[in-house]
Amino acid sequence: MTDVIAIDGPSGSGKSSTSRGVASRLGYAYLDTGAMYRAMTWALLQRGVDVHDSAAVAAASSEVVLTSGTDPEKPTIAADGVDVSDPIRGDAVTAAVSPVATVPEVRSQLVALQRAAIAQSTGGIVVEGRDIGTVVAPDASLKIYLVADPVARARRRALELGVEDAEAMREALARRDAIDSNRAASPLAQADDAVVVDGTDLSLDEVIERIVALARP
Ligand code: C5P
């Protein structure tokens, strides 16, 4: 069975940069499950689906075909054959993704794809998301729950996106975390056997180093 490293945590805690760095260091594949929820959201918005109408989301989502590229140097995501790696980072998708991710039919469809990607990766894989250690890969050999102080997370994300209002960013992240943590279907949660890494006062390289050391003690 392939080696799986699960990296979960709230929005803006640095999961993507960290997960890609860990995958590169170990020569592992990388799966960004958040990008899959975003790509699904992008495809639903394209179809004019009301993302707050769970029944409509459930019905339309089954027609969407997602394809993930798992190279940590250049991860890609396509919806219905269109590369949506860039548009899924826009405000429209970011505002709509958490409601879409509450819909159980969407989750079961994407979890099945995620498990298939894990099964196909022969040389080890780093999988990042919200429910990887708890639901998608409960047998992962290493589970990390990556956290950071909310103000630090907002500052970092605002800098990344060139947004000036860090307080508005903190509120937006908190809103997304609240929906992700309180939904009924596989909420954001720390697995009992996860190692908590707090990146607030660490550089990206230090966080990566810590996780690589845990993976290869
Ligand atoms: O990680 P990222 O911020 O790109 O994820 C976008 C959204 O996708 C999250 O806010 C969450 O609503 C959803 N998500 C999820 N389960 C995952 C990964 C992401 O519900 N495993």
UniProtKB/TrEMBL annotation:
Residues 1-20 are annotated as: Disordered. Its main location: cytoplasm. PANTHER family: CYTIDYLATE KINASE, CYTIDYLATE KINASE/PANTOATE-BETA-ALANINE LIGASE. It is an enzyme of class 2 (transferase). It comes from the Bacteria. CDD domains: CMPK. Belongs to the cytidylate kinase family. Type 1 subfamily. This is Cytidylate kinase. Keywords: ATP-binding, Cytoplasm, Kinase, Nucleotide-binding, Transferase. GO terms for biological process: nucleobase-containing small molecule interconversion; pyrimidine nucleotide metabolic process. One of its GO terms (molecular function) is ATP binding. It catalyses: CMP + ATP = CDP + ADP; dCMP + ATP = dCDP + ADP. ATP binds at G9, P10, S11, G12, S13, G14, K15, S16, S17. GO terms for cellular component: cytosol. It is found in: Cytoplasm. Its EC number is 2.7.4.25. SUPFAM superfamilies: P-loop containing nucleoside triphosphate hydrolases. Residues 5-215 form the Cytidylate kinase domain. Transmembrane segments: none annotated. The gene is cmk.
